Amino acid sequence: MKRPLCTVGFTFLLWLTVLTYIGNITFTLILALIAYCAFALSLLIKKSRRSLFVPAVCLSVCISSLLFFFSQSNFLKVRDLAGSEGQIVAAVKSEPEYNIAYHRYYCKAEIISIDGRKYSGNMRLSFSTEYEDISLDDFVIGNVIAFDGRLYEVGSGVKDIVDYFKSEKIYIGANSIENLTVTRQGTKPVSYLGNRLRNKISTSLKEHFSSDTAGLLTALVTGDKDSLSDSIYNDFRFIGIAHLMAVSGMHLTILAMGAGLILKRLKNKKAKNSLLSLFTAFIMFLANFSPSVVRAGTMYLMRLRADSTGKKADSLNSLGFALIIILTLNPFACKSVGLLLSVLSTLSIITVSLPLSEALSTRSGDVLKIKSNRLFSMHKAIIFSLITSVSVMVFTVPVLADAFGSFSLMSPIANLIFLPLSPILITIAAISALMCSVSFMPGFIADIIEGFTRLCVSVADYLSQFEGFMVYVESEAGVLICFIACVAIVGVGCLARWIYVKRRYRKVKNKAVTN
After folding, report:
1. Which of 213, 261, 486, 503 is 20 to 30 A from 405, comparing alpha carbons?
2. pLDDT top residue among 64 and 492
3. In this structure, what DSSP letter does residue 336 have?
4. How far is CA 129 from each of CA 70, 124, 138, 150, 359, rounded to the nearest angstrom?
5. For the chain, what is the radius of gyration of the CA atoms?
């Protein structure tokens, strides 16, 4: 089997997605048993044993079913506590965030015990310092808190919202907090340092830039959108480029290229790749190990490892390995919109954009008789940008329609416009974060960055005014139609590419026979 990790990883993703829709743990256990029997049977068949594809798929279905079974069982066990009151002990995992709409604070905490019984998972704490005798100073990451509270079901039974909380491993909520006591740990967890660092970057940027610019720069560097204004984020989402706010492959590649230029004079390849690996791990840490950055970071680390050993990394295998890691740690991450968009965008580039742009640029270059290497490189980059803009949209439309009930036909145009602007935006965001954090930001540089950032925001705002490009999908049937249409488009594209490759192979073969 050529790509075992790819086969296992995407089997995990597809099967766990199916199981989240089914939701029945008894049925899941039966499916796991059937898959295991199919795996054992496939090993007895010589042909399937040699290819290993069928055994790998069956074993992957069995393992992913078991992972879902245990995770779903634990979720239901915790959720059944909703509506009760009790003594809760939990460890704070995020600092309180104020929701102006509800005039309440919310934070994430890891469950240690409820009424003396141990549970696993996270809970969402909801409280108001105005009406409850609570100090925000008590909610420091790493603090273990004990309190009397009422448990409630997060998401109010709405499946999409519940799935979102499950993807964050938040299984239940607690409010009406009373008699809160704190046990301060001697050492803070690593997440505490990451939170401090993100807050430091956000605060430093606000000291040198306007609130909108600082919020956008913070989101580009850390993926933290708390300081980003709703209007800017909605504009970016409306035109289909909200993925810029999630630290992923493009961000990591650009930042790694910058680090690579600094380490350019280091001749020892293994030492250089080791330092780049540490830098990649730091970026993942800074972005709080979100699923999209873990996906990108894992793929880049595998690429560095292959480069150090003199091999060539297989992108699809790397993508599959990243999915195995993410979904093993949290099977419910299959419903993370950020992860799905990141995976599908990457898949579209690997399977469609790269090969198709290579074929079209070579063919059109011959037709146009482009002889200059520089002109051909520009020609190739333009074709790649066009194809990538369309292919990413086609691959991600079903997820957008299912998650948000809409998608924008403006997406290819906006992506084409922002494709050359994005590297500049990400680079200046990283430079700004570094310079502001050490309090070295000359005024004229700040003005240039402010002006360029505002220009990008203005372009996004202008494009978002074309409301006719927004397509609304208000039913499950509409989502299904979008999915079938996108699969059909991808299928036609793959068939066209296969025909092109076949014809080219025949021409080369006939030419060789003639000679």
Report:
1. 213
2. 64
3. -
4. 37, 16, 12, 17, 62
5. 25
